[in-house]
Amino acid sequence: MIALPRPQNCPTGGQGGWQRDKGAVFGSNRIRLRPDPVSIGGLPRLDRILSRRTRARRWLIQFPRAVPVAIFLLILAVALISCFAFERGERRSETAQMRERASAVASALERRANANAAYLRAGAALFATLHEVPPSRFRSFVSELRLDSDYRGAEGIGWAARVERSELTALEGRIAQEYGTKVAIHPSLAPGQPFAVPVTYLEPDSERNHRALGYDMYSEPVRRAAMIEAERTARPTATGKVVLVQENGRMGRGAGSGPDAGAGFLIYMPVFETSPGGAQLTGFVYSAFNARAFLSSVLKVEEAGVYGISLYDEKVSPGTLMTSTGEVGARTAQVSVPVSIAGHRWILVMSRAKTGELSALSVVTLLFGLAAAALLAFVAHILTQQALEDGARLSWFEEQNAIRDSLTRELNHRVKNTLANVLSIVALTRRRASTLDEFAEGLDGRIRALSATHDLLTQSDWGPTPIGAVIEAELAPYARELGPTISMEGAQIELAPSDALSLGLAIHELATNAAKYGSLSLPGGKLRVSWALTRDGKARIEWGESGGPPVPAERGRGFGMDLIEKIVAHELQNPVEMDFDPGGVRCTLVVPVRAPRPFAIRKRDDRG
Question: What predicted TM-score, i.e. pTM, was given to this entire model?
Answer without folding.
Answer: 0.49
